[in-house]
Amino acid sequence: MSEEFEDKVKHYRDMGKSAFVIGYTGECGKELVKALSKNRIFNKVVLIGRRKVELNPDPGPEFEQKVIDYDKLEEYKEAFEGSQVGYCCLGTTRGKAGKEGFIKVDRDYVLKSAEIAKSNGCQHFSVVTASTADKNSMFLYVKTKGEVEDALTKMAFDKLSIFKPAMLLCDRGERRVVERVALTLMKPWIYMFPTKGSVPTSYVGRAMVVDTVTPGDEKLRVHNNEQIHGLVRQDENKK
Fold first, then answer.
1. What is the H or E stretch that residue 95 is in?
2. pLDDT for 239
3. If you average pLDDT over every residue of the chain, what do you get?
4. CATH no. for residue 226?
5. Which residue range(s) make up the domain with 72?
């Protein structure tokens, strides 16, 4: 499998494509940047965010940070130009941003970025949502993620990849109280069924890269938590 994956990487790299990443300072976004840096599948990767941050380790010369104002996305269309592939790991929490702020970041910014990207030639858009996403849910988080999936599907990208992780495992600098409690309660379940209810953020980033380089005619690819684990197995032996 590792040799097969290497062949996919080399073939994709030879296409000479460019990409952008929004949400690259979050836990999944940081892991995605690491995976992109490791595999070098793009000639250029534009990291789009509110501010420039120190990237440690340095991902490489093909990575460029561009600062934008998400509330004025129409004024920053050039940041999305020339990218055939787009990645979205954007997200916040209701506790941090409030209800309206959460909807703005997790739905409105995501969809507006996708619209601008598509109008600028983005062919393949990949987004991280949630395992429970459901546009008809009464719960804000679940409903918002479901609305994002529904709207992106209707945008008719040449290819849309949706990643639906369950509980994200990472060394978060600001571990939230609810997450700490949930993680403690779920430890036995995670140990017994490692692919069911949780996934490391590093796996999400790596799975997004594996999905990108995997050929196929499907316009829509939806990867649940177990499938994210499965994608990573293709990359496990790559040095």
1. helix 94-103
2. 47
3. 91
4. 3.40.50.720
5. 2-170+199-233
Q: Is 182 domain-assigned?
A: no
- Could you identify the residue written with the tokens 């600001």? 174
The per-residue pLDDT for 170 is 80
Overall domain count for the chain: 1
Alpha-carbon span 146 to 7, nearest angstrom: 35
Active site residues: 141, 145
CB 221 within 8 A of CB 163: no
Residues of the chain with pLDDT under 70: 1, 171-194, 237-239
pLDDT at residue 75 in the model = 97
CA distances from 50 to 78, 90, 205 (A): 15, 11, 21
List all residues 6 or more positions away from 86 whose beta carbon is below 8 Å from its beta carbon: 19, 20, 21, 22, 80, 113, 114, 117, 122, 124, 125, 126
| pLDDT at residue 233, as a whole number | 86
The kind and range of the H/E element at 114 are helix 110-119
